[in-house]
Backbone:
């Protein structure tokens, strides 16, 4: 929704456009932003690119590596030939730790996929895929063959 703000300025989706003509689509001119707004935009971009401590991807990653460290410590003890008392509680804990690592890996993969999808959506699909030129050539050939058959030529 666009409304006239001042002479030559329009508000669009809570963003401002400063210019002589009507802007196309949501747009915020960096030059027209105050220093505080620029810092807020830079901080938002920084948070989007680098996960902070509250981010699920960062949390899943730290959790995964803590589980992996526990398993690695136990594995090194076994390789070193240290006596490890295997009781039911320790065995249950090891099985639970292995399951936790597997679940954390899955959760981390899901969160990374979500972040990648979100970044592609924000970028508008720039560089998101490749062209299948062979497939396109085949499809064009099929369509031309259909047209030839339909036209009798």
Residues:
């Amino acid at each position: 929704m666009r409304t006239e703000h001042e002479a030559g300025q329009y508000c669009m989706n809570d963003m401002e456009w400063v210019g002589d003509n009507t802007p196309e689509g949501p747009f915020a001119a960096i030059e027209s932003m105050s220093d505080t707004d620029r810092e807020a935009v830079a901080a938002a971009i920084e948070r989007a690119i680098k996960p902070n401590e509250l981010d699920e991807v960062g949390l899943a990653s730290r959790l995964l590596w803590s589980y992996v460290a526990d398993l690695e410590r136990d594995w090194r003890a076994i390789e070193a030939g240290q006596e490890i008392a295997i009781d039911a509680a320790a065995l249950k804990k090891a099985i639970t730790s292995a399951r936790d690592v597997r679940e954390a890996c899955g959760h981390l993969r899901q969160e990374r996929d979500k972040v990648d999808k979100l970044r592609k959506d924000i970028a508008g699909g720039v560089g998101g895929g490749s062209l299948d030129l062979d497939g396109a050539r085949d499809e064009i050939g099929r369509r031309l063959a259909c047209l030839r058959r339909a036209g009798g030529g």
Notes: Confidence is low (pLDDT under 50) at residues 1-18, 22-30.
